[in-house]
Amino acid sequence: MDRRHFLGLSALGGGVVFASGLAGCAGLATAPGATRDFYFVQMSDVHWGYQGEANPDAAITLRKTVQAVNALAVPPAFIVFTGDLTHTTDDPAERRRRMREFKAIVADLQVRTHYYLPGEHDASLDRGAAYREHFGDPNYTFVHEGVHFIALDNVSDPGARVGEDQLRWLEATLAPLAADTPIVVLTHRPLFDLAPRWDWATRDGAQVMAILQRWRNVTVFYGHIHQEHHRMTGHIPHHSAKSLIFPLPAPGAQEKRAPLPWDAAEPYRGLGFREVHTAAGGSAFGLQEFPVQRS
Predict the structure, then answer these.
(1) Which domains, from first to last, does the chain contain?
(2) Model confidence, pTM
(3) How remote is the C-alpha of 126 from its chain's centroid?
(4) How far is CA 92 from CA 100, 124, 159, 170, in A?
(5) Is 45 in contact with 83 (CB distance < 8 Å)?
(6) Which of 100, 114, 120, 201 is the most exposed place for a label (fewest CB within 10 A)?
């Protein structure tokens, strides 16, 4: 199903939800304040600087993704990167070099509006100092066509917490919004306990969700787990994104979290990015997934 078909169904049905067609993918929250159709692209877990057998093409995977996004028939309104822009390193100078290289590569994206979030690989070792130097504040808000976007930082605290200051900021940010305002939350770690022993959780995620539950039209997009996953917390859907470096196993599927082996027959299997659509007038959001192609 392409974007034109999705938007056509939305216009006809007035309440049609396009759910990517993938097993387990739930429909997204309605957006009654939207004034025009739009879509954005979500990329996640680039891990620029990674070297290892889980992706022997690591030096070119991001560049191929940039080419793929530039080749989309209709440009997205903007692009969001939900964390782990770079691969972790103990060397502060190397951390900053990787961030500069990442920015130079994504500068080739024809869509110039980008929004960034840190991952723990970018921020946990220095509490986000290098990230702030290169990308600015890790938590912020913006509005696009009536949809309120909120970026939350749950990685700069090495204890995997949002923290009291940011919880108060979230409360203050949401307070003026009507109960039916369309809200999209962007974060890196899941805001629920998906697999805590694998660090797939946020320590105070339940507090975040208790705040968000007061609004009727909230959707959460996150990264970190290197695969699609869809979960509901009450009426709020959560949707994780694939990685652009290597896939990880299903939550709790094995004792130890480790990258899935590189498959030379299908070299980019499990890697990809997504489009997130919304139709004007509050029809629906929807997901469309795109694989990364080697050639």
Answers:
(1) 40-249 (3.60.21.10)
(2) 0.89
(3) 22
(4) 13, 12, 20, 30
(5) yes
(6) 100
